[in-house]
Design a protein that fits this description.
This protein has about 400 residues and is of the alpha/beta class. The protein folds into two domains: about 230 residues, 3-Layer(aba) Sandwich (Rossmann fold); about 170 residues, Aminopeptidase, CATH 3.40.630. The chain contains 15 helices and 14 strands.
């Protein structure tokens, strides 16, 4: 991130991009101004601007609004100097600090009504973007908004193809730039741009606990997205780690007791509950080369209340690439959309590993199997269960992208 920021210390090239409006800043930030006016109206609100740069366009979008405070972070000292001048007329306290996106969110102790990130997030690799969303959720006030202006790949556009297309567009359309400027910009893009698809951005936001994802205007690869932090306590989704083993085992055992009472013989459930569940999960989570994915749902106190695991399809699931191995939620957290979010999070990881279809096996006698049908799973077969006298049925998704909607 720090190396990427050095490019913007070469103010002349970037100012030419802004002056000629090559990246559609004028139209994009008119839309930003409309969003802010519609979301906040005359209410006072606080702003956290991550990767603020010179704030040349964002300061105009904020003009005339009832701003309580503005805090901006950027790594470029020359850009921060310009930002101070551009923000002078806001009529509120302005704090400008030198830090990158993640360091800013890690160190920041305040909470904000509006968190804005303009053309900066694509410099972070995927795992860091997921952390960005989690940290932004902590810094957002209930009812607050996260507003992102950034570059996004098409859903079927891998990064190398995006780089060729985007740089080809620059070389073709940015005719007013000197050749050395075009070359410098394209080199910067190829080294430091890691844009995600809109689907992945929405998925990371939802896993972090944001809701109401909305895509606004877009201009070629340039998008505006927004989401909100609910006033109610949020559940966030993240990847499981080895230290989660005991909590996952607790959810697994308790969910078995509540889900399968009256379906599975009591002595079988008792043996399952006394088995070394924690050791089993610790072994799965500590694998140096993970063969499966584990996602956990946790409340704002960090208590794990559900989990999903999956990986390559096993056994009879030959018509599907991936499989949900387990999905359980503590009873008080059921019927709140968390199971759907866990399923989508697991599907996103399976798709990233090359599994574009998915199946799940569930006891036919389990009334919760209707959940899988409700989220689009189609009947995909049945077989005798390992437990005598019971049957398992399968639900499948030929294209797991449908789970991201």
């Amino acid at each position: 991130m720090r190396d990427a920021a050095k490019f913007f210390d070469q103010v002349s090239f970037y100012e030419q991009v802004l002056d000629r409006d090559y990246m559609f800043h004028n139209a994009i930030y008119r839309g930003v101004a409309v969003f802010i006016a519609g979301y906040f109206g005359d209410r006072p609100f606080s702003v956290l601007d991550l990767g603020c740069g010179s704030a040349r366009h964002f300061s105009r979008a904020l003009a005339g609004r009832n701003i309580q405070s503005y805090t901006g972070y950027d790594l470029s000292e020359p850009a921060l100097l310009q930002a101070r001048r551009n923000l002078a007329d806001l009529g509120c306290p302005v704090e400008l600090r030198a830090a990158d996106l993640l360091d800013a969110l890690r160190k920041e102790t305040g909470t904000f009504d509006l968190i804005f990130c303009g053309f900066s997030l694509h410099h972070l690799p995927g795992a860091d973007k997921a952390e960005f969303f989690r940290l932004a959720h902590r810094r957002a006030l209930p009812g607050g908004a996260l507003l992102i202006v950034d570059i996004g790949r098409e859903e079927d556009e891998p990064r190398p193809l995006y780089l060729d297309r985007y740089c080809g567009w620059i070389q073709s359309e940015w005719s007013g730039m000197p050749p050395q400027g075009v070359d410098a910009i394209c080199q910067h893009i190829r080294e430091y741009d890691f844009p995600e698809t809109a689907c992945d951005m929405r998925g990371m936001a939802r896993e972090a606990g944001f809701s109401g994802w909305r895509a606004h205007e877009r201009f070629r690869w340039h998008h505006t997205w927004s989401c909100a932090k609910d006033a109610a306590p949020a559940i966030r989704i993240r990847d499981g780690v080895a230290d989660d083993a005991a909590a996952i085992a607790r959810v697994h055992i308790e969910s078995w007791r509540t889900t399968y009472a009256g379906i599975i013989p009591g002595d079988y459930i008792a043996r399952f509950a006394s088995d070394s569940r924690e050791l089993t999960w610790r072994g799965i989570l500590a694998e140096s080369e993970r063969r499966s994915f584990v996602c956990v749902a946790e409340d704002e106190k960090g208590t794990i209340v559900g989990f999903a695991s999956g990986g390559r399809a096993r056994g009879e699931a030959t018509n599907y690439a991936g499989e949900i191995y387990a999905l359980y939620l503590m009873q008080p957290f059921q019927r709140r959309g968390i199971g759907r979010r866990l399923t989508a999070a697991l599907a996103r990881r399976l798709l990233g590993a090359g599994y574009d279809s998915m199946v799940v096996w569930v006891l036919a006698e389990n009334p919760s199997r209707r959940f899988y049908a409700a989220i689009g799973g189609a009947p995909a077969g049945e077989k005798p269960a390992d437990i005598a006298g019971l049957t398992e049925v399968a639900y499948g998704w030929k294209d797991i992208r449908a789970l991201f909607d």
